[in-house]
Every structure is written in structure tokens, then in C-alpha cells.
Amino acid sequence: MSYHEKWMQRAFKLAEKAKSQDEVPVGAVIVLEDKIIGEGWNQPISANDPAAHAEIIALRNAGNNIGNYRLPDATMYVTLEPCAMCAGAIVHARLAKLIYATDDPKTGACGSIFNLLQTEELNHKVEIEKGILEEECRTLIQDFFKVKRIKK
To answer: Beta strands of 25-125 (E only): which ranges?
Structure first.
């Protein structure tokens, strides 16, 4: 298992936790110097909070853990391409790198619809890598929504 797969596996476990709580299965982990400094999973339904995405929770957790809202040397691992809200927060946190598993063709703001993390107009650029555990993460999300559609 590669270094990136190790951390994406942790994000995947958090996505499974979200699924077990009937939330869209997305998990996020923030790593600094080979240690987790923040993590989160989707919780907007249970928290009644539209901003309670895995990435936002992980950023808040990391900021609290290191005592700083700036995370310039950290890397975020997330199972699904971040939306515009989360991408904006990633830029504001000054993360060095984002690694995500699978594209989000409906709301992805890191390359699928547009790329907020590397736009010339902003003062910070985030390195992006994608495709780590892509199939496993995509299948988890697709299966979640298949079950939701059957229940309706």
C-alpha cells in the first residue's frame, strides 16, 4: 500500500461512518508530517448544517488541533472531489495539497465543473492529485444513492 493509499483508506473508513449515519458517504483526513491533524465525515443532515461537509469538519478539527486556521504544509485526502464551498475553505486554509479519490461531475470544484483551487484570480494555489482508491470510493457513493432511489 502506498503512502497516499494509507491516508485515503482512513478517509474511506470515515465515509463508511457517514454512510452508517445515513449521510452521503464522504470522508476527509488532513495530514501534516505523516500525522492526522484533522478528520471529518459528512454530517449536514444529522447536524442540520448545510456546511457540515467532511472537508469543512476536517478543516475545523485540524485548525483546533494545531491552533491555527492556516494549514500551509498540510495535505487533505477526501473520497469525493470537493464542492465550491469546500474548495473555497481549502484555499482559505492555504492547504498545500488536495488528494481526492473520485470526480464529482455534478458539483466538483477542483476540475470537474471548474477548478477553484488553481484559478489565476486567487492568491493561493493548491496542488491536486486524484484517483487514489477511485473505484472503491466511487462505488461506495453510487451504491448509497442506488439504495436511496430504491427506497423512494
So the answer is: 27-32, 35-41, 75-80, 97-102
Question: For residues 87 and 93, what is the distance between their CA atoms, to the nearest angstrom?
Answer: 10
Distance CA 139, CA 152 (A): 20
Assigned C-alpha cell, 129: 492529485
Nearest to 72 by CA among 109, 33, 110: 33
Q: Is the whole-model pTM more than 0.85?
A: yes
Buried b (16+ CB within 10 A) or exposed e, 35-74: ebbbbbbbbbeeeeeeebbbbbbbbbbbbeeeeeeebeeb
Neighbouring CB atoms inside 10 A of 141's CB total 19
Taking each continuous run of H as one helix and of E as one strand, the counts in the chain are 5, 5
User: From CA 148, how far away is CA 115, in angstroms rounded?
Assistant: 29
Q: How far is CA 58 from the centre of its chain?
A: 8
- Tell me: the pLDDT tens digits for 78-124? 999 999 999 999 999 999 999 999 999 999 999 999 999 999 999 99
Active site residues: 55
